[in-house]
Amino acid sequence: MTTLRTPGPTIGVVGGGQLGRMLAEAAAPLGVEVVVLDPTPDCPAALVARDQIVAGFDDEAGIRELAARADVLTFEIELADQEVMKRVSEDTGTPVHPKPSTLETIHDKLVQKRELEDAGVPVPPFRAVEDADDVRDAIDDYGAPVMLKARTGGYDGRGNVPVESKADAEDALESVAGPAMVESFVDFEREVSVIAVKGDDEVATFPIGENIHEEEILRETVVPARSSDAVTERAHAVARDVLEVMDGRGVYGIELFETSGARSAPDDSSGRSPRESEGEILLNEIAPRPHNSGHWTIEGARSSQFEQHARAVLGWPLGSTELRSPTAMTNLLGDVDEEQSAQLEDIDEILETPGAALHWYGKRQARPLRKMGHVTLTAGEENESVEELLERARELEDAVTFRP
């Protein structure tokens, strides 16, 4: 039986960006305190967390201090050092969720893909590459373009470079600047994601979201995704298979491709028209933490991904993942040419629109395409289409601007 007391339990979070900020916001109503560790003084989470330890993500002394102040450790960025966290956990008895072994798997995308493929999770064809000739060989086998990915250090689309032709291979490898892998380019109908939760003895999945990317950066998510019931069911099944591979409690952001359906040949004997088959689901990437594509859950679901993460890492019962209302989320990215002080203007329309919610992350500096905040918009009318909802959310995002 779960017991709540005052003061309540403390979650120690490696990373104090916007995910740590929103985790602290969600934990507070549960009586749960959050202490974050981040190298940036007054990081975005510092305003709402109980305290911040200023230290690097691989700073063993800092992580030991965090463990001494927490009942459980977690992380909101994959740059957390899994070896240090494992060692600190073993020495102090403070558990880490998700487990450091999961973080180790996620750290290297090639290792991640191999383990998932071995477990029967559907993934695009992939291979390791050492040099430009390997990339060119992959283009011969897979066709152009291919997707070149940094094996380590990349997250939220960073470190992913489309290679359009063999002539681009060397420049693409130079931009990745480290160990790399190549995936075949997926002819997808849409990109979707499932926010999945692994609890103590239960799992839960949120409704699938449809994601719109530009320049490999997530711009918008709309829920429910414009997918068929069969594809939706398949996406949830794949997400649950992924959870079987992951070790430890918490939220996992699972990005998927919904492939285009194959068009069948006409049946000349019957005179029937060609039919479109259902698309397939292929795994793209996994984040072992709350994910940008799940921010819609704060307003759009019975419980948010951040509340679920707090519940899960503490071993508490999970909340409902039921959809409250169709919801669109749009990121507020730094539309600046160079780094400048963060200042968002003309927010009145967002604040005055029923069903709209503004989330500002408290970052001090705006940089080109940096995630500075997001806006969610829930459906205003029962019969409002997903397309209409998404268009209204885009209009709200277009109304605001960054100024020096």
Summarize the helices and strands and which ones pair or pack.
Layout: E1 10-14, H1 18-27, E2 33-38, E3 51-54, H2 60-68, E4 72-75, H3 82-92, H4 100-107, H5 109-118, E5 126-129, H6 132-142, E6 146-150, E7 160-163, H7 169-176, E8 180-184, E9 188-198, E10 203-205, E11 209-214, E12 217-223, H8 229-245, E13 250-259, E14 281-287, H9 297-300, H10 305-314, E15 327-333, E16 340-341, E17 344-345, H11 348-352, E18 356-360, E19 365-366, E20 371-378, H12 386-399, E21 401-402
Parallel strand pairs: 1-2, 1-4, 2-3
Antiparallel strand pairs: 5-8, 6-7, 6-8, 9-10, 9-11, 9-13, 11-12, 12-15, 13-14, 15-20, 16-19, 17-21, 18-20
Catalytic activity: 5-amino-1-(5-phospho-beta-D-ribosyl)imidazole + hydrogencarbonate + ATP = 5-carboxyamino-1-(5-phospho-D-ribosyl)imidazole + ADP + phosphate + 2 H(+)
Domain ATP-grasp: 113-314
Binding site for ATP: 109, 149, 183-186, 191, 213, 284-285
